[in-house]
Amino acid sequence: MASPEGGNRAEFINTSSSKKGAKAGEEGEGGKAWIYWRRPEEWAAALEEWVERTGQKGTVLTLYEIIEGDASRREEFYGMDMELLQKSLGICVKRGKAQVFGSGGEGEGVKFF
Fold first, then answer.
1. Are 63 and 81 in contact (CB under 8 A)?
2. What's phi and psi for 109, nearest 5 deg?
3. Interval 54-77: pLDDT, tens
4. According to the model, what pLDDT value does residue 46 have?
5. In the chain, fewer beta carbons within 10 Å around the N or the C end?
6. 108 touches 62 (CB < 8 A)
7. Is 98 helix (H, G, I), strand (E, B) or coil?
8. Which residue spans traverse the membrane (predicted)?
9. Residues 38, 91: contact at Cβ < 8 Å?
10. Separation CA 104–CA 68 (nearest Å)
11. How far is CA 88 from CA 2, 4, 15, 37, in A?
């Protein structure tokens, strides 16, 4: 457990008690952890603010354009991990602020309302 810093803290929770002795990467072990400096909800708000500020409501944008495009080059989410972007956009969808189109990956599109 880490000590609080700025009101935030990191904590490791071991959930592999049922498979003692299993190697990392084996099925059921997980092998992946997300450590955020901003939660997906915060990234969703940043994306919504950017779309509003740049006048792109109603425009279909590809996920590639959002994280690698010239229009987002100076934004904090530029170069964001694709999986984190998809989680953040999922929150926008749940809030009724966006709709995602396509089958996945960088070619997927999103339209903000």
1. no
2. -120, 160
3. 999 999 999 999 999 999 999 999
4. 97
5. N
6. yes
7. strand
8. none
9. no
10. 16
11. 26, 25, 25, 14
What does the pLDDT look like over 8-60, one tens digit per residue? Answer: 666 666 666 555 544 554 555 667 777 888 999 999 999 999 999 999 999 99
Give the chain's radius of gyration (CA, Å): 17
Tokens read off for 102: 């396509």
CA dihedral 106, 42, 16, 10 (to 10 degrees): 130
Report the DSSP pairing between strands 98-101 and 60-62: unpaired
Coil, strand, or helix at residue 8?
strand
Q: Work out the angle between the directed axes of helices 40-53 and 82-94 (0-180°, nearest 10).
A: 80
- What φ, ψ does residue 50 adopt, rounded to 5°? -65, -45
Question: What are 12's two structure tokens?
Answer: 């490791």
Q: Give all domains of the chain, ordered by start, each with its CATH number.
A: 40-112 (1.10.10.10)
